[in-house]
Structures are given as C-alpha cells and as structure tokens.
C-alpha cells in the first residue's frame, strides 16, 4: 500500500495525488491499468518498469510516465523507493477511477 502525502484531512494539492512507494529487493508488482496518468521519480534503488510490452531500466534519479490505461508493472532489483504524482483526484471527481489489476476491473472507491 502506498503512503499518501497529505495535510490533515486533505490532499496537499487538490488536483494532484502524491504517494511514496517502497518495493523490497526482488519484488515484482502485478500488472495493472488505471484511468489517469502518473509520473514516478526513483528516489533510491534500481529496477525496471514495464510499460505495455517495453521494459526500461530504472536507477536513482530517473523519472518515468505511466500514461492512462497502459498496462504497467514494476520490478525491484534492490530496495526501490519511488515518489508518484498522479491526476487521480481529478479522475475520481469526474467519476472515472477505473483500475484493472488483471483479476477484475473496478472503480477505486
């Protein structure tokens, strides 16, 4: 579960969600798709991101974008710490927070 950065009871910025993700070494996340886009920054560690059918290596300082509804997953070679910035609050307000985790497609509410 990611850690959301918030002020008590509210998002830091009403239109942008900020989260911190930590993956343990040798962890691979399930492939998922989401309505809405995200920007990730690798704070520390190394691994790879798979976007659709393309794999990209990740190291400390890298930035990458996950466009809306593109299948994606992460793999950590070492402990991988990432910041994620997304437009999820806007998508949720519009009523389109769809997430496909491979097992089922659902709204995030």
Share of β-strand residues: over 45%
Span between N and C termini?
15 Å
Largest sheet: 5 strands, antiparallel
Summarize the amount of helix as a percent range: under 10%
Mean pLDDT: 87
Return the structural class: mainly beta
List unreliable stretches of 5+ residues. none
Task: Walk me through what this model shows.
The protein has a five-stranded antiparallel β-sheet, with no helix packed on it. The chain has one domain (3-8, 16-87): Jelly Rolls, CATH 2.60.120.10. With 109 residues, the protein is mainly β. β7 (46-51) and β8 (54-59) form a beta hairpin. The model has no long low-confidence stretch (mean pLDDT 87). Helices cover 6% and strands 51% of the residues.
């Amino acid at each position: 579960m990611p850690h959301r950065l918030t002020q008590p009871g509210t998002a830091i910025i009403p239109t942008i969600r900020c989260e911190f993700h930590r993956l343990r070494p040798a962890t691979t996340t399930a492939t998922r798709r989401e309505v809405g886009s995200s920007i990730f920054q690798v704070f520390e560690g190394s691994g790879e991101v798979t976007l659709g059918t393309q794999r990209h290596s990740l190291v400390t300082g890298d930035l990458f974008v996950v466009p809306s509804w593109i299948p994606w997953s992460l793999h950590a070679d070492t402990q991988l710490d990432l910041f994620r910035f997304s437009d999820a609050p806007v998508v949720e307000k519009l009523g389109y927070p769809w997430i496909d985790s491979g097992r089922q497609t659902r709204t995030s509410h």
